[in-house]
Amino acid sequence: MSVGKLFAPDCIAQNLHAVSKKQLFQEMAELAINCGAIDGDNNKARDIVAAVTERERLGSTGVGYGVAIPHARLDGIDEVRAVFARLETPLDYEAIDERPVDLVVLLLAPSGASSLHLKALAQVSRLLRREDIRERLRSAPNAEALHLLLSEDRSASAA
User: Fold this and answer.
1) DSSP 3-state helix, strand, coil percentages of the chain (rounded to 5)?
2) What residue ranges define each of the domains in the chain, with the CATH number in brackets?
3) How confident is the model over 48-61, as pLDDT tens digits?
4) Which of 36, 87, 113, 144 has the maximum number of C-beta atoms within 10 A of its C-beta?
């Protein structure tokens, strides 16, 4: 699966407001449900927040350069899905470089899909490691432009 197929157009938040990791995880879980990435209700949102929080206890998913990729495996989903948020105000996230985070990808995978989960995580990480992509995401004027950046086919230029 390519990175672009992970993100549905409605699963992008342009200026998400969050003042804590817990609120960020809650907002992103609700986005995942509301945009149709994950079937569910408030109980499922709690499951997502709990799973992501549990993973975060193992170590921060703030990977540096203002980027965080919280992720978890969940029962009851059948494919890897992602939601993206550009935060209204950068958030202290305890990232490895100690910089606040403003670009966040929540990655959710089926509980039994270790290899798919790791592959998707690597693809998202590789994409957001690129300074040009991060800058374009930060300056994109709207959610549609953000989605286009995230779903752009880069296979032709990958060598």
Assistant:
1) 40, 25, 35
2) 15-151 (3.40.930.10)
3) 999 999 999 999 99
4) 87
Q: What is the per-residue pLDDT across 77-102, written as a single tens digit (0 to 9) for each?
A: 888 999 999 999 999 999 999 999 99
What is the pTM (predicted TM-score) of this model? 0.92
DSSP string, 101-121: EEEEEEEEEETT-HHHHHHHH
Identify which of 132, 131, 136 has the alpha carbon closest to the alpha carbon of residue 147: 136
**147 in catalytic set:** no
Give the C-alpha separation, 28 to 18, whole Å. Answer: 10
- Active-site residue identified among 17, 71, 117, 147: 71
CA 5 to each of CA 2, 32, 44, 80, 83: distance values in angstroms, whole numbers, following the listed order: 6, 15, 22, 10, 11
pLDDT digits (tens, 9 = 90+) for 132-156: 999 999 999 999 999 999 988 655 4
